[in-house]
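Quick log. Single chain, no ligands specified.
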Amino acid sequence: MAHSSRAEKPKKPRADFPLFPHASGRWAKKVRGKFCYFGKVADDPKGDAAINLWLDQKDDLLAGRTPRAGREGLTVRDLCNRFVAAKEDQADSGDIIRRTFVSYYNTAKLVVDSFGADRFVDDLASDDFEALRKAIVKRCNSNTLGNEIQRIRTLFKYGYDAGLIDAPIRFGPTFKRPAKRIIRAQRQRRGPRLFEARHLRRIIKAAPLPLKAMILLGANAGFGNGDCGRLPKSAIDLKSGWINFPRPKTAVERRVPLWPETIEAIKQALAERPEAKDAVHDNLVFITKYGQPWAKESSDSPISKEMRKLLDALKLYRDGLGFYALRHTFETIAGEGADQVAVNSIMGHADSSMSAAYRERISDRRLEAASDVVRKWLFRRESKTPWRETHSKEQPAD
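-> predicted structure:
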């Protein structure tokens, strides 16, 4: 009697097919130590339905969640796409600066990568946000963590306010900014974001152009990276020694007196300034050797990189001490002059107080005096005589 031959074992339709035919006769894949099944091989010999089901359930299975199929809903991808589009419209209209848009975009990408693009938004629970917070903590400091959490909350609030989801998201009790005491403790460990006068003099002396001019603008005017990178030539009057340049981040008007050292450094930087690669950047004071602006719409700032190289060479670098610390330094030292209104004006701080609503102008003499406090501290001027004559006369009273 002839023996019947054993049925031939099913094979994968192709070598890179992610599923395999299980002994039970079903398409299968081992995920997180357990077998998951995607229909009978006999009914789907080429695995077309199986692979579609795998792709549909993949994010949930890899995350250890039970797949929820057969229903409609807003996905994380759809929410993030709508949010990013809305923020880009705000950036295009000038409601937010481009760098803020980039931060929102990166946050949306983090949410998609963390939760899965096809995850339903109403599937998210407090444990998902707790896990996300733990992941963020591993790669950033307390201040950055707080900013990231706030942007994530803003993203999901947008979904509710826009009518994309029916109820506010429950983030859970722990998905919050770090406590203020934690942030204070971190700042104490890091040390003050402040240059000492003797160190800043060394930095200015060693800095090449145009970095020297930008450092002096930081010390003289409280300019940050974006201020220097976006400064137009039309904003500077080197003859009278004044800058009239609204702060890009807040659009608050600023009128800043320039020191003789700053004026000279800017003149030298302009004399050596490369041609801009794009005509749209012709009006910028500072252009890189590659013909590009020094300002970038990201946290990857060329100015910060050059400052870091200089501080490393002088053995002055430590965590938190970079170009932006010049802005901290100006605020700290200028505040010793007891005219905080003038300091705030130079810094470009938005002032929502009642007194600001009634204040129509600040005299040039007050602005010069606030700046003079920093110059005397930096260059150790012993004389009480003002470092220059006032270039603009007071407006007569009505």
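Residues 1-5, 390-398 have pLDDT under 50 and may be disordered.
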